[in-house]
Write a structure and sequence with these properties.
The chain is α+β, with helices and mostly antiparallel strands and 190 residues long. It contains two helices and nine strands.
Amino acid sequence: MKQLHPRRRSGFSIPELLIALAISATLLLATMMALGVSFRAFQSTTRTVSTGVTGRIVIERLQTLIRTGVDFGPLPGSPLDSIVDSDILTINMGDGDWVTLRWDQPTETIYWEENGDSWPLLEGVTQLPAGENSTISPFTLEFKEGRWLNRAVIDLVVEHDDAQDIAIEGTRSDQFRLIGSAMPRVAAWD
């Protein structure tokens, strides 16, 4: 006699498919969220690094201007004073042109001024170091004999764009303190 075999299923049941679909959707959602957070953190880090690199380029450029300049200001109020802390640095380039570098506190920007025109050179310059209560001067000029610049120190406190922060970073403060020192070639050869 013939034996009857029960019919075998060749696929999944509807509840099994729904469970598999729910697990797959959960894994895809978690992966997409992790990639989104990772991408935003990458963007923030890239912008922060860009701010640091830009700040270092500005410091190098300012040091070059000081090295090649022939006359500087502001001068000390008295010939007996030798140190001037200032928000402004003026440089005579030797061809009769004067360049003025000015820190504007309300806009937190260093401006380049020349021939009556003004351009932002570096933004986000707060001049308020972490843990301090008062701002510092971006330019310290050391004169000899009350008239001749011996050395200039550039001290910039730069913060990255706060609009790029993301919630996962918490209250981190990416602040760069960029310090450079230069002396005019004329003073270096004396």
